Amino acid sequence: MFFYDPSVVDGTDEDDAARALRDAEETSCCATCFLIDVRKNMVSQKNTKLHDTSSTSSTTKTTTRTPVQSAVECLDTFLKNRIISSPNDKVSVVLYGTKDFKNDFGLDHVHVVKGLENLTAKYIREVGEKLRGVEHMTYDGSENHRGLSLKLALWTCSHMLKEYSKKTHVEKRIFIFTDDDDPCGGDPNLSKQVLGRLADLKELQVDLQLYPLGDPAGREFSRDFWGEVLGEMCETEESFLEAMQLSQADNFEMIRRKLNRKRRWLKTQIKIGPNLKIGVDYYVTLARQLKAQRSVCAQTNCLLESSTAYVAESGEVLPKDERPLKGWTVRGKDVHATPLEYEHIRDPEVPLGFNVLGFKPESALNPAQQVKPAAFLYPTAVGGCSSNHRVFLAFHEKMLVLGQVAMCSFSSSRGSSVGMELVYLVAQQEVKDEHGGQLEPPGFHVVALPYADDVRSPEEQQRKKGELPQYAGEDQVQRAKELVAAMKLDEDWDSTYIRNPALQRHYQILQALALGEDPTQVSVEDGTLPAEAVLEGAKGAITAFAMELPPMDVPAPKKRAPAAKRGTAAKKGKV
Amino acid sequence: MAPRAESLVVAVDVGRTLGEEGAKEVLRIARSIVTHKVLYGGKNDSVCVVLFGAASTRNALHDEMASDGQPDQYVNILVLKDLSKVGSEDLEALAGEEALLWGGTSDHLDVLTVAFDVLCKDPLKSAKRIVVISDFMGPIKEVDGDFVGAVVAGIQEKACAVELVSLAPITESSPHPPETRDLVLHLVDTVASLECASDAKDYASLRGVKHPVSVAVKHGLAIGSFEVPVGVYKKVSKASMSTNLKVSNFYKDERGDVWSVKRETEFRRRDDPDGSVVTDKAKAFPYGKDLIPVDEAVTGYLAKAEEKSLRVLGFHERGEFPQHRFLGSSYALLADPKSKGAQLAVSALVRACEDEDQVMVARRIARGGADPSLCALVPRVGGEGIPDHFVMCTLPFREDIREYPFASLNASEKWVPSEEELGLAGRIIGEMSLAGEDGDLSAEQLVPERMANPSILNMNGFIAEKLAGAPNGNLQQATRSNYLKTLSGPAEEILARAGPHLERLAELMHVQKKEEGEAGGVKQEAKEERVKEEKD
């Protein structure tokens, strides 16, 4: 699998644009250290202020949990999400401000619950068990060890992350959970040491993240110390806690899904005419997420790998390097093709990449004309050379202005099983939110079109049978309009805000099985169901619409026979 | 119920008005029709291949008339293969030497009579069809109105379908001989359909396309407690070589004998790929680095079993559903044709959505036990026998979206194109337009749904060649030079218009590359000098 190589854009004269491009790229896995402050105040303080991520509006709620309980909950969510989304990630959990110590260096008040390890069910279970009694790990007077235990904990983390310091494909992160807005207590020497340690970590390209919790000593969480460390610019004291928690919301929101890191699927080109070629990177930005099933040995639970064998009627197995002939049986006659002939049949031998055949107005787009999810194209960065970008942008801009799409033939590789595709390239304007966050990236969407072989015309069937369809009258259309108005979805409704209930259930049950919990107790919120309030509000309009129409009978769904019965029937049928 | 068998007569004009190229093209269309029958036709279908305008004569009507003392009737009509079960013989006939007996006089009414006579003598109870492929440029004898009327009446009585395929459009003002044109237009008015080969990019390829029938999955479209009986049909579904025709595996031994081999999947431990085959296997799902085995009982509650359903969530602005957000294949939602109420309900909803620029959003369980999905139902107003319906496209969930950040395209000044480059891009887009005047899509060129999949086309051609006993690649030559060339780049007339702008833009691009390369070289030299100085 291809990993993005930053050196491609790290030319000798890296400019802002190249840097922006490089910064936008993600790495292939994460090494994350969780640093949890467990000093007295963290375990004794109640009423932790937490940003409410379940609401779309920005609100802060006060919980009855202690800050450390909130931190442990966040950690639990993070681990359970991460094990599914990025199983290659490594995570460590370090407590600081503990009574005893547990680390390789004999550092006081630093307890390493887990070193940097891959996530497994056992890992999550063990962390859960160890943190169950976290309140008892603190000690009286821990509040007086301000800064020192943090400094030592940071030192421990830097040692853990050191082995990844030169691995550019590994993203390094430290999450700090604390309620202490002034960890050095105004001690300039200690402050200098902690800041120095934090600066060292930044040099190691470690991304520091703070999750502030609670109200230290009953006042608002101050931004003075951490603001300087993180370089966050917040206008008010209160907004610092809120802003920081909000920025972490995605990390600690319970959504189980496989996370696909940004990687180029293909480096190819758009060819317009014989001599004009624009280098582009092809990304898969939309794909149905499936439940990844594996085969294991029933006895040993070892992962199995499949291979294909060709077996003759006599039971003789073809040697592995022997490629069989392909063939078809047509009207009782066999037709054979050698492997080479078969390759030639599959491959229409059009030039590789996107070959522009011409341009059409955007109105040529038709929702019924699409055979697979769209992909995305972005210009290839070629060192310090900008001409590729310029020509890409020229066509991008003009296609947007003129409302045109490009029709192309596309062949990704020679002998590809997909063969050649017909596609439209649709220019996408960059869209940003009010904070400058990118909502839609700029580039071209690749919409794969159907051939005549792929299109069916069920709407023609009635006409072919000579039956005349019924069309609604004005009154019926008017009632339907009232129904449409009564059942309008929220303005910001978007299916991509909704979690796949089947996938969430699958992962939750898997998690319960892995962690030894009761899978029958799993319940999943289903955001795909019609909103009761909407239906209740539209009751009148639905009734009025129904009254406008002749009565109709919906046939009752046929009950499926139990699996065992179906199997028997199928077997009988075959006999 | 098994589909009814069909008896088909393919009548191919090879008369002198076509010339060599025209004759080759009509034969290619005929070959494509026959190949389609051989590969995808019913097992009891029959085909008869007839040449007209041929240099020799062989048909039953001519023989009958000759025995009655009229040997000049139904001449230049050569029955290449009698009506019999479709098979490789049909392809052999079209690839054989007799198919090259071109250059006679074409009489369209005569060939229609001969073809109809062949079907009348068919003892099989089957659907009857005649396809006549011609340029319709050959003048015919004076037409006897009564005779034409009798032929048309006979065709109507037998419910025989007649397809006329012309190489060029036939209209009141087209340069066809008046008698021939009048006959064609009369047939179109009474019994025949007319297609023009020049309407498609490669008509012959299009005639080889398999068209599977879409079967309805019945649903009750639920709007609250109100339900409308509807059917959901596949509208677009990716076809492939193996979905069209079953591909098998064979092995050729040293003696040249070919044996059928079965493909079997074997499982071995990943950590011991050369070890023994494991037969006792179980299903598992990864959880981090762990594999969680699941038995049947667990599989049962891993998914929540729901009954088949289609429930409306509400309506949303059409602009919120750009095409690139749909998850592939689309469906058509049509009202139950047997229910007047359902047809009126769907029609009213379609028209309301169309007028209000709305899309209906629904939750679908495609079959009992399947996972739920969200769908956007885009309205399609019908007419002329087409019912109002919705096109149903699957929407992505949060898990399906991969949000990758990309730098702004104008993040660097160097990336911003010059006025000249922008102007050239605009002119290229204009000159390479595939739409008609002012973006008129009714005159659109290269319509994807009127273009055949080239891989499947290759497969059909390869099999047809082998069955016909023709030399490799001989029959496919025209497809390669016509159709596949079309897919490799812009058409010649487009290139002629846009060529100078394309060349200029390519030149600008090349110059920039060169300049930047030189600039890079200068910088590199300066850097090397600096390093040298520092060393010194």
TrEMBL record, chain A:
Gene Ontology CC entries for this record: Ku70:Ku80 complex
> Low complexity bias located where?
53-65
Q: Known InterPro entries for this protein? A: DNA_bd_Ku70/Ku80, Ku70, Ku70_bridge/pillars_dom_sf, Ku_C, Ku_N, SPOC-like_C_dom_sf, vWFA_dom_sf
Coiled-coil intervals in this record? none
Q: Which domain of life is it from?
A: Eukaryota
Where the protein is mainly located, per its record? nucleus
Which UniProt keywords are given for this protein, alphabetically ordered?
ATP-binding, DNA damage, DNA recombination, DNA repair, DNA-binding, Helicase, Hydrolase, Nucleotide-binding, Nucleus
Species the sequence originates in? Chloropicon roscoffensis
Locations of Basic residues compositional bias?
557-575
**GO aspect biological process, one term:** telomere maintenance
Q: Give the UniProt subcellular location, in the record's own words.
A: Nucleus
Keyword Nucleotide-binding annotated? yes
Task: Please list the residue ranges annotated as the Ku domain.
Answer: 316-466
Q: Where is this region: Disordered?
A: 46-65, 553-575
Q: Which Pfam families match?
A: Ku, Ku_C, Ku_N
Q: What is this protein called?
A: Subunit KU70 of ATP-dependent DNA helicase II
NCBIfam families per UniProt: ku70
Q: Name one GO molecular function term.
A: damaged DNA binding
UniProtKB/TrEMBL annotation, chain B:
Q: Where is this region: Disordered?
A: 513-536
Secretion signal, residue range per the UniProt entry = none
Q: Which UniProt keywords apply?
A: ATP-binding, DNA damage, DNA recombination, DNA repair, DNA-binding, Helicase, Hydrolase, Nucleotide-binding, Nucleus
**Which GO molecular function entries does the Swiss-Prot or TrEMBL record give?**
ATP binding; damaged DNA binding; double-stranded DNA binding; helicase activity; hydrolase activity; telomeric DNA binding
Q: What InterPro entries is this protein classified in?
A: DNA_bd_Ku70/Ku80 (IPR006164), Ku80 (IPR024193), SPOC-like_C_dom_sf (IPR016194), vWFA_dom_sf (IPR036465)
Q: Which GO terms describe its cellular component?
A: Ku70:Ku80 complex
Q: Which GO terms describe its biological process?
A: DNA recombination; double-strand break repair via nonhomologous end joining; telomere maintenance
Instruction: Name all Ku domain ranges.
Output: 275-412
> Where is this chain compositionally biased, Basic and acidic residues type?
524-536
Pfam families referenced in this protein's UniProt entry, alphabetically: Ku (PF02735)
Q: Where in the cell is it found?
A: Nucleus
**Family per similarity comment:** Belongs to the ku80 family.
**The name this protein goes by in its record:** Subunit KU80 of ATP-dependent DNA helicase 2
